[in-house]
Amino acid sequence: MRSAVLKSTSELLRRSRRGYSSSATPERKVAILGAAGGIGQPLALLMKINPLVSSLSLFDIAGTPGVAADVSHINSPALVKGFMGDDQLGEALEGSDVVIIPAGVPRKPGMTRDDLFNINAGIVKGLCTAIAKHCPNALVNMISNPVNSTVPIAAEVFKKAGTYDEKKLFGVTTLDVVRAKTFYAGKAGLPVSEVNVPVVGGHAGITILPLFSQATPASNSLSQEDIVALTKRTQDGGTEVVEAKAGKGSATLSMAYAGAVFADACLKGLNGVPDVVECSYVQSTVTELPFFASKLQRGHFNSG
Ligand SMILES: NC(=O)C1=CN([C@@H]2O[C@H](COP(=O)(O)OP(=O)(O)OC[C@H]3O[C@@H](n4cnc5c(N)ncnc54)[C@H](O)[C@@H]3O)[C@@H](O)[C@H]2O)C=CC1
Ligand SMILES: O=C([O-])CC(=O)C(=O)O
């Protein structure tokens, strides 16, 4: 009996140190903007089952009452509310700790991410203006493409509003990491759950730079041709999905997974969990480029 109590106490302490104990975990509100979309819906599901989320706010221009009603029936602690239309955006954002933005149009075959610029820049500008007003301290996870441009746009909106904090604005490039890990593990014959591959640069074509030379565990079974092929497949991962979906959009399920991984890292960082490391596209001094994706750790994720 006593050893069972000790065992469960030490399990609680362990979970609490990792940010998983409900009694030790701070209340955290997460808002998803574009929550009724292809990414938004599975991302809403994954955030609903994240034990670090106490309140989940689902915003879109249409369709959110249905998504919110559906997701809210899942028996996990997060309280879910749906918001629809511009007049409900402020309430959706109020008090948010993390705002995830998958709002905007996706690619069709033959398009580049840049072709989305005209529509998505306007959407992101409007949403970030509202974030500056209603939750200026939130960590912002930008998924909408082209990420290489939507992140600098968001930065300018926040600067104009006087709320910009470079440590709180993230372009979500986690899907590049997810793909690099999957493809590398597959080719090298390594267990995928043990594999790590940093991906730096940006989130479009040749700006996506998987660093297979820094992959762990290292593999000595891969040839130079293998590395070239893995690099190309990672860079073209988005296009591979766009073509396979043949006009029905771009990656949604793998992106929702990647978005949930990144948001979880942000929540852990806010909760003071040490050693949170993820790659993300942020304002940077790593190169001469003003924004660059690289490995982030303490300082970014613990800035809240
Ligand atoms: N960063 C990354 O690695 C990835 C980024 N993406 C990008 O994510 C974006 C969304 O993709 P999907 O979910 O597949 O598209 P989708 O069209 O299925 O969903 C987008 C949602 O955004 C909503 N929306 C449009 N304007 C809005 C506004 N002003 N406020 C709130 N919601 C608004 C739409 O109503 C729709 O529900 C695209 O730009 C896509 O290119 C997609 C995959 C990976
Ligand atoms: O390729 C696209 O348009 C969507 C995206 O960013 C990705 O899947 O990496």
Automatic annotation (TrEMBL):
Gene Ontology MF terms: L-malate dehydrogenase (NAD+) activity
Binding site for NAD(+): 34-40, 60, 120, 143-145, 255
Entry's Gene Ontology BP terms: tricarboxylic acid cycle
Enzyme Commission number(s) of this protein: 1.1.1.37
Pfam families: Ldh_1_C, Ldh_1_N
Assigned keywords, A-Z: NAD, Oxidoreductase, Tricarboxylic acid cycle
InterPro entries attached to this UniProt entry: L-lactate/malate_DH, Lactate/malate_DH_C, Lactate/malate_DH_N, Lactate_DH/Glyco_Ohase_4_C, Malate_DH_AS, Malate_DH_type1, NAD(P)-bd_dom_sf
Top-level taxon of the source organism: Eukaryota
Domain Lactate/malate dehydrogenase N-terminal residue range list: 29-171
Active site, renumbered: 203
Subunit structure: Homodimer.
Protein name listed in UniProt: Malate dehydrogenase
